[in-house]
Amino acid sequence: ESQVRTRNPIERCFGVWKRRFPVLALGLRLKIETTQAVTVATAVLHNICIKEKEDDPPVSPEAVAAIDALQDVGGEENAARQRDGNHRLTDHDINIQTRNTLIHDYFNGML
Questions:
Q1: What is the pTM for the complete model shown?
Q2: Which residue ranges make up each domain of the chain?
Q3: Alpha carbons 28 and 37: distance in angstroms, whole number
Q4: Cα–Cα distances in angstroms (integers) from residue 15 to residues 8, 11, 57, in the given order
């Protein structure tokens, strides 16, 4: 229940954050240290915008189209790997599994 209560506001916050900084939605292709610095910097700037009562950024059709296109490409690559029977876990897959495990364990600890 605690996960359900917190998930929606967090997802809304991430949506506003990604609209304000579309590079977060498109994905960063940088070294992990640089990616962490960019993420923290955008979080700080986002919090400043909230503190200064800046309006939420509008939804940009161009950004939505670009994000959808990138997600489609990733989906096609995964489908091709599975068709070829050559599906190996990538670093990205492992990172997602690790993240999901951490989230699951954290919220189960709250019950």
A1: 0.52
A2: 2-67+84-110
A3: 11
A4: 10, 6, 10
